Amino acid sequence: MATVKSSEFQKNVGLWLDRIHEGPVRISKYDRPAAVLVSAAQYDELVSNFRKVTTPMQLTDVEVAMIREARVMSDNPFDLDDIPDFIEPRLPAGA
């Protein structure tokens, strides 16, 4: 990802707007990341996929196999038996 200082970005906005079609541009201020500039098409794609829900039935066999093979590296191992099948919903007091 290309990185540009905010002062340089301000001087050459047109150049950096052209560069976003090659990929996102990180803009820094005082040597710290301040923003990331992306093309409108990439932004639309990001927004359209934000919090998109996929049901288990929509997963392909390859995706299911990848999930089954995935491992979490942790000092506190767990497995699916640790997750209850159903948690009784709690009603607010007085309901």
Please write out the topology.
Blueprint: E1 2-5, H1 6-11, H2 13-19, E2 25-29, E3 32-37, H3 40-49, H4 61-69
Parallel strand pairs: 1-2
Antiparallel strand pairs: 2-3
- Low-confidence blocks of residues: none
Number of H/I helices: 4
* CATH architecture annotation name: 3-Layer(aba) Sandwich
Order of helices and strands: EHHEEHH
The count of β-strands is 3
Global morphology: elongated
The CATH homologous superfamily is named YefM-like domain
Write down the CATH class: Alpha Beta
Tell me about this structure.
By secondary structure, the chain is α+β, with helices and mostly antiparallel strands. It has a single domain (1-73), classed as YefM-like fold. Helices cover 34% and strands 16% of the residues. The protein has helices at residues 6-11, 13-19, 40-49, 61-69, and strands at residues 2-5, 25-29, 32-37. The protein has a three-stranded mixed β-sheet. The longest helix is centred in the middle third of the chain and has 10 residues, at 40-49. It is elongated.
Question: How would you concisely characterize the structure shown here?
Answer:
This protein is of the alpha+beta class.
Task: Give me some keywords for this one.
single chain; 95 residues; alpha+beta; YefM-like fold; Antitoxin_Phd/YefM; YefM-like_sf
